[in-house]
UniProtKB/TrEMBL annotation:
Its cofactor is FAD. The lineage of its organism: Bacteria, Pseudomonadati, Nitrospirota, Nitrospiria, Nitrospirales. FAD binds at K54, D313. Residues 9-327 form the FAD/NAD(P)-binding domain. This is Dihydrolipoamide dehydrogenase. Belongs to the class-I pyridine nucleotide-disulfide oxidoreductase family. It comes from the Bacteria. Disulfide bonds join C45-C50.
Length: 463
């Protein structure tokens, strides 16, 4: 029988849902071990998600902006050397892995073990790694095992790449395809479509639902779709029938509604049809509750087993990196409080951005949700057509829509489509979290000439 290591906190996974808690509790003097199959800290955000996809996206955004600037004295069409784009992406990933290794080295009481963790009982975990099995007995556990790619099952789907093939370190895709067909019109499909179109690839996107970005506010999505480059071919309500290999790449057969089957040819295909939570082996066997969106946890991140917390993508509450980080800290605070729920995750103040070109972002209450829940609201609106920064950049489409509680004019939420949306949503989110009112926003002297001026101007339509 191997030794059982006694620890205060054990995390399954070492991504954004794990390491903020691990660092906090290790610095507080607790014995902490993180286990991750990758053997490094950072999870999928750095391995194949947020950071690498946005490293490629920013190059594409620069090229799109350069093309728009061509009437104003800059050469228009920049050539793209995609191998160097990938090299940049890989370098950012490596730099961040090095940075995280240095951060780990500063906290000697924190250990990271490489291997797959599984529950033996509600306090005991086995980790299967290169050196065989190690066992840990933990007072507290955070399950932070994240999510993984869903691969669709249509015939020939294995011919298609996925987001890992595009964005992992040393990825499968190293050359820019001349044409790309993407299955799935969610976050990853639409972000990838707009970035590769901006890099010069001919892009078709096939979405099975009646609209792309389903589940997001319909007015915001409609405004965004009106601003996407019409050169991106988007087919909605389409059923994929099969994919085949051709001399020049792939052929995807699909049908829209009841119409006759059609085919799209492309050099490469990508599937982006969602992610599913990864529940560690043994969790259900020890009585842990799992629902359709992953491990069932409340907003204090506690599961049905009081000393086991679940944070990040694995609980399906808000599958975003910054939500994972916040939930990790919520779990840590509640563990430090002896299992009492002294802290809770607030899903009503989480900024979200779809990093398309242009961007769309929202936080808190949005019109569709307000209608669905019967919540009354009044709106303040600012069009980027009037905005000095938008005019300077030639990006005058879209605008800011803020939702306020009638009477008190407390800010409940907002949507932004267009210039700097991903940055503006942070300011609006902080105002929602801080329970600010239209008057507070109207009186704040946002900087000129930046798009944030629009936040105050939208509020001033009501006070
Ligand atoms: C292409 C792409 C782009 C994205 N872009 C954004 C973005 O711009 N902004 C944003 O906020 N979010 C983005 N996301 C989502 C973001 O990556 C996730 O929300 C975030 O990584 C969740 O963190 P996590 O710690 O919960 O899980 P993960 O990052 O998935 O980490 C879980 C870790 O646990 C490990 N693990 C799993 N099971 C076990 C086990 N049994 N034993 C040991 N280890 C295990 C996994 O290997 C993994 O390293 C993107 C995702 C993708 C795929
Ligand atoms: N900017 C961000 O914050 C960001 C960026 C990328 C990913 N993410 C995270 O990653 C998750 C996964 O992203 P995703 O884009 O893979 O999933 P998603 O759930 O956002 O979208 C999947 C889309 O694929 C469609 N679909 C499913 N099966 C299909 C089929 N057979 N044919 C055609 N369409 C089909 C769905 O209707 C849906 O529109 C997101 O939910 C999000 O949590 C976040």
């Amino acid at each position: 029988m191997s030794t059982v290591h006694e620890v205060d906190l054990f995390t399954i996974g070492a991504g954004g849902a794990a390491y903020p808690a691990a660092f906090l509790l290790a610095r507080a003097g607790l014995r902490v071990v993180m286990a991750d199959t990758k053997g490094v800290m950072s999870g999928n955000c750095l391995a194949e998600g947020c950071v690498p996809s946005k490293s490629v996206r920013e190059v594409a955004a620069h090229r799109a902006r350069q093309r728009r600037f061509s009437p104003w004295g800059l050469p228009g069409e920049l050539p793209v050397d995609y191998r160097k784009v990938v090299a940049h992406k890989d370098r950012v990933q490596k730099d961040r892995y090095d940075q995280h290794a240095r951060e780990m080295a500063e906290v000697p009481s924190l250990r990271l073990v490489a291997g797959r963790a599984r529950f033996l009982d509600d306090h005991t975990i086995a980790v299967e790694g290169n050196r065989g099995e190690e066992r840990y007995r933990a007072r507290h556990i955070i399950v932070a095992s994240g999510s993984d790619i869903v691969r669709p099952s249509f015939p020939g789907a294995d011919l298609f790449l996925d987001s890992r093939d595009f964005f992992a370190l040393n990825p499968v895709l190293t050359e820019r395809p001349s044409s790309l067909v993407i299955v799935g019109g969610g976050y990853i499909g639409l972000e990838t479509a707009t970035m590769f179109h901006a890099l010069g690839t001919e892009v078709s996107l096939i979405e099975k639902g009646p609209r792309v970005l389903s589940g997001m506010d319909s007015a915001m999505v409609k405004e965004l779709c009106g601003l996407l480059d019409p050169g991106i071919r988007i087919l909605r309500g389409a059923t994929v029938l099969k994919a085949e290999k051709t001399d020049s790449g792939v052929a995807l057969h699909y049908r829209v509604g009841e119409s006759s089957p059609e085919v799209v040819h492309a050099e490469k295909g990508m599937v982006a049809v969602g992610r599913r939570p990864v529940v560690p082996e043994g969790f259900e066997g020890i009585g842990g509750e799992v629902g359709p969106h992953g491990i069932v946890a409340d907003l204090s991140c506690q599961t049905s087993i009081p000393h086991i917390y679940a944070a990040g993508d694995v609980n399906g509450i808000s599958p975003l990196f910054h939500s994972a980080v916040r939930q990790s800290l919520v779990a840590a605070h509640n563990i430090l409080a002896g299992g009492r729920a002294v802290d809770a995750f607030n899903p009503a103040a989480v900024p979200v951005t779809v990093f398309t070109l242009p961007e769309a972002a929202w936080v808190g209450l949005v019109p569709d949700e307000a209608h669905r829940r019967g919540i009354p609201f009044v709106t303040g609106r600012y069009d980027f057509a009037e905005d000095s920064r938008a005019q300077i950049l030639g990006e005058t489409g879209g605008g800011i829509t803020l939702l306020f509680e009638p009477g008190s004019l407390r800010l409940l939420g907002g949507t932004i489509v267009g210039v700097d949306a991903a940055s503006l949503v942070g300011e609006i989110g902080l105002a929602v979290a801080g329970r600010l009112t239209a008057r507070d926003l109207a009186h704040f002297p946002d900087q000129h000439p930046m798009a944030a001026e629009g936040v105050g101007k939208a509020a001033r339509t009501l006070v």
